[in-house]
Amino acid sequence: MYGFFILILYICNIKFSDMTDIRTGNGYDVHALAEGLPLFLGGVRIDSPVGCIAHSDGDVAIHALCDALLGALALGDIGKHFPDSSDEFKGIDSKILLRRTMELIAGQGYHVCNADITIAMQRPKLAPYIMQMRQTLAEVMGIDTGRISVKATTTEKLGFVGRGEGCEVYATVLVAQ
Questions:
Q1: What angle do CA 147, 9, 20 make, to 5 degrees?
Q2: Are 149 and 131 spatial neighbours (Cβ–Cβ below 8 Å)?
Q3: Which of 49, 87, 138, 153 is surrounded by the most beta carbons within 10 Å?
Q4: How many whole angstroms separate alpha carbon 25 and alpha carbon 146?
Q5: pLDDT of res. 88
Q6: 152 has which bridge partners?
Q7: Phi and psi for 10 in degrees, rounded to 5?
């Protein structure tokens, strides 16, 4: 198969150096939950009796997405760019962090092809919020909603997520130059 690919490149007079630079990034974040705190996921306030304990607004979905974006270009992680030891980021809206991350990505000459996010949380049910999260993230990132996937799952009452003690999010992105 590889030889066929090389043959096509040769026939079309395409050099590897002419090809678009494509990179993937993976992000993961987790936050503990506590009663009486607001819950933000994917830039959307979720109706919930619990929210994330965090230095910022605790939007674990956006934090995982920022890590995936930064990781795709080997730019470190969210803690490097937006440290939780800085008062500048105390209580900050995570959409601002995502916007700044997108500026870093664009500054390197890259754009987002797509993002895929999986939120693991036992409750509340997140299905009613998925489209709003996709729209919010797409708006902040300056891309089409069709390039953002957000999925929600439970852990079937297993582990800290299943016991309702926390929320974890996995994010994968594809970026290209």
A1: 35
A2: no
A3: 138
A4: 19
A5: 82
A6: 119
A7: -65, -45
CA distance 104 to 161: 32
* Predicted confidence band of residue 86 (pLDDT cuts 50, 70, 90): confident
Place of tokens 């895929």: 116
Cα 41–Cα 38–Cα 142 angle in degrees, nearest 5: 30
- Residue 11 — pLDDT band, cuts 50, 70, 90? low
- Per the listing, tokens 């800085």 go with 86
Q: What is the rounded distance in angstroms from the CA atom of residue 160 to the CA atom of residue 13?
A: 55
Provide the residue type at 1 as one letter.
M
Provide the phi-psi class of 29: left if phi over 0, else alpha when psi is between -120 and 50, else beta. beta
Write out the two tokens for 114: 């797509």
CA nearest to 32, candidates 1, 55, 65: 55
Query: Whole-angstrom Cα distance, residue 53 to residue 30?
Result: 10
Q: Is the pLDDT of residue 15 over 70?
A: no
Judge contact between 67 and 29, C-beta under 8 A.
yes
For 43, the token pair is 């830039």
Q: Could you write out the DSSP letters of every residue in 23-84?
A: EEEEEEEEEEEEETS-EEETTEEE--SEEE--SSS--HHHHHHHHHHHHHTT---HHHHS-T
